[in-house]
Write a structure and sequence with these properties.
Number of domains: 1
CATH superfamily: START domain
Number of strands: 8
CATH class: Alpha Beta
Number of helices: 2
Strand content: 35-45%
Radius of gyration: 17 Å
Helix content: 10-25%
Oligomer: single chain
Structural class: alpha+beta
Distance between the termini: 16 Å
């Protein structure tokens, strides 16, 4: 399995950050490539989310499921269609990282573990002469750019004003 772990600091208490993260349908407000999120369930373990993505000539729906909740610190999830992937959001209270003028801070981690070899090339209806490899090569840098934009928008909503946000990429998971 491959993994990606990234984190950023927000200047709010863990409970506030967690409540924001648990609102999956609200994520559609932050990305131009996220057309919407549909929820089946009450938001607790077992709830499934259809995440509708659009880019270029491609439309794809990722189906994920919440597998465990540990408020206000952890949200475990897994992808249940087309790809073996799972991960979690983790919120850590880090008051020492709050700058002057802010009472507290939380570090939000996103860990994604996936097996790229399980991606089915038939999962996308690709135009003629377009390979899955070409799409992956084009999407990778867009995902990183989009992640930074989305995180900046989220932090602005959480904190009440825009600011530069640093995404920290971790080589190995620091959370459990």
């Amino acid at each position: 399995m491959d993994n990606v772990e990234l984190s950023t600091v927000v200047y709010v208490p863990p409970e506030e950050a967690y409540e924001f993260l648990i609102d999956f349908p609200g994520y559609a407000n932050y990305s131009k490539h996220l057309a919407g999120v549909t929820r089946q369930g009450d938001g607790g373990p077992g709830t499934e989310y259809d995440i509708h993505l659009r880019w270029w000539k491609l439309n794809y729906t990722v189906r994920s499921k919440v597998t465990n909740l540990e408020p206000p610190h952890r949200i475990d999830w897994e992808v249940v269609k087309d790809l073996h992937a799972h991960g979690h959001w983790y919120v850590e209270h880090v008051p020492d990282e709050a700058p002057d003028g802010h009472e507290t801070a939380s570090r939000i981690y996103l860990l994604i573990e996936f097996d790229a070899s399980t991606a089915d090339s038939g999962m996308l209806d690709l135009p003629a002469f377009v390979s899955l490899g070409w799409v992956v090569g084009r999407v990778r840098p867009l995902v990183l750019d989009e992640a930074e934009r989305v995180v900046q928008r989220i932090v602005a909503d959480l904190e009440g004003e825009p600011r530069e946000v640093e995404l920290e990429f971790h080589e190995t998971p620091e959370t459990v």
